[in-house]
Automatic annotation (TrEMBL):
Species name: Mucor lusitanicus CBS 277.49
Stretch list, region Disordered: 17-64
Ranges where the CAP-Gly domain occurs: 142-184
Name under which the protein is recorded: CAP-Gly domain-containing protein
SUPFAM superfamilies the record matches: Cap-Gly domain
One Pfam family it belongs to: CAP_GLY
InterPro entries from the UniProt entry: CAP-Gly_dom_sf, CAP-Gly_domain
Signal peptide as annotated in the record: none
Length: 193
């Protein structure tokens, strides 16, 4: 064999090896792309939107527009004249400062405290023994089978109650589930609407 044929054979073999290597790399690339497409997340994802929160229904006791509080100011001479008429005792007791409520308090609240509202059916009440302010309307007053003495059935403004007006199959009043509860008179306080 001469040198020209040998170089031709070598170049042909080299070309065949390069072609084979390129083919292998192409196959490997194709396998990797198939694996990536299997593992890759879908290009489109389903998106969920939160439902629109329904507006809160206003209770019948609330006004459409809350009334403004009356603006009050301290009288210029009233406090000093009152202090002169009623001097403090001269013993060693510290004089009590008038609280913020006494100076700026709503006079309507003081009038309500003086004359308690009687609790009858339909009266708006506040449950005193609850950690958060809980209000409702009286729907039942009388004796019950589950306890001694007088109980008052209350339809609550919010669903934080323990019944729907019936206990042990006996219906005392009607309301929605978890909007009713029963309490003793001492656990309630009548409030103005």
């Amino acid at each position: 064999m001469d040198t020209g044929n040998l170089e031709l054979l070598l170049s042909m073999e080299t070309q065949a090896r390069l072609d084979a290597q390129a083919e292998r790399e192409k196959e490997q690339q194709q396998q990797l792309s198939e694996q990536d497409s299997m593992l890759a997340p879908r290009p489109t994802r389903i998106k969920f939107e939160l439902p629109v929160t329904p507006p809160r229904s206003r209770s019948p006791a609330r006004l459409a527009y809350p009334r403004a509080r009356p603006v009050r100011s301290l009288p210029d001479e009233g406090l000093t004249a009152n202090a002169m008429r009623h001097p403090l005792p001269m013993n060693n007791m510290k004089p009590r400062r008038a609280g913020w409520r006494h100076l700026f308090g709503d006079r309507e609240e003081e009038e309500l405290k003086q004359a308690p509202i009687p609790i009858t059916i339909g009266t708006r009440v506040r449950l005193k023994m609850r950690p958060l302010p809980t209000f409702g309307y009286v729907r039942f007053i009388g004796a019950v089978d589950f306890g001694k003495g007088e109980y008052i059935g209350i339809e609550l403004d919010h669903g934080v109650g323990n019944c729907d007006g019936s206990i042990d199959g006996i219906r005392y009043f009607d309301t929605d589930p978890h909007r009713g509860t029963f309490a003793k008179r001492r656990e309630l306080e009548a409030v103005a609407e």
